[in-house]
Design a protein that fits this description.
Helix content: 10-25%
Radius of gyration: 31 Å
Structural class: alpha+beta
Strand order of the largest sheet: 1-2-3-4
Order of helices and strands: HEEEEHHH
Protein name: SWIM-type domain-containing protein
GO molecular function: zinc ion binding
Keywords: Metal-binding, Zinc, Zinc-finger
Strand content: 5-15%
Organism: Coptis chinensis
Shape: flat
InterPro entries: Znf_PMZ (IPR006564), Znf_SWIM (IPR007527)
Largest sheet: 4 strands, antiparallel
Length: about 140
């Protein structure tokens, strides 16, 4: 999480931030993005999708002196990860699969037999082909 945050801060340094009010900001990238810190939303929609502040949100939060970590969803924290996997996960043994492959085992191709009846002499036309009528 920290590496993602540091990468976004490095990118965000080149943006220009204009404060509209206490919670709304305009961040000038190639285009202007509108960030609402209270709603945790940005016009680029990455903050709403990922629940992780986008580059524009990080710029806005830093510009007004807030902590970016307080705006990151709790699902990205170490404590949340630890609560998700409190017990150990054991591998499942597969009894049906042999552990060793014998060296004398040769895999042969399947038997191919011709179907019953006469062979087709007329080709099967493609769906895009048109038939020419002769009068």
């Amino acid at each position: 999480m920290n590496s993602v945050y540091c990468a976004k801060v490095d990118i965000a340094r080149s943006f220009r931030v204009v404060k509209s009010n206490e919670v709304k900001f305009e961040v000038e990238d190639v285009i202007v993005h509108h960030v609402n810190v209270k709603r945790r939303s940005c016009s680029c929609r990455y903050w709403q999708i990922d629940d992780f502040p986008c580059v524009h949100a990080v710029t806005s939060i830093i510009s007004y002196g807030g902590s970016v970590y307080s705006f990151i969803d709790s699902a990205f924290t170490v404590s949340s990860f630890s609560q998700s996997y409190p017990h150990s996960i054991h591998p499942i043994a597969n009894i049906e699969m042999p552990m060793e492959i014998p060296e004398d085992c040769d895999i042969m191709p399947p038997d191919v037999r011709r179907g019953p009846g006469r062979l087709k002499r007329k080709r099967i036309e493609s769906t895009g082909a048109s038939r020419r009528r002769i009068h």
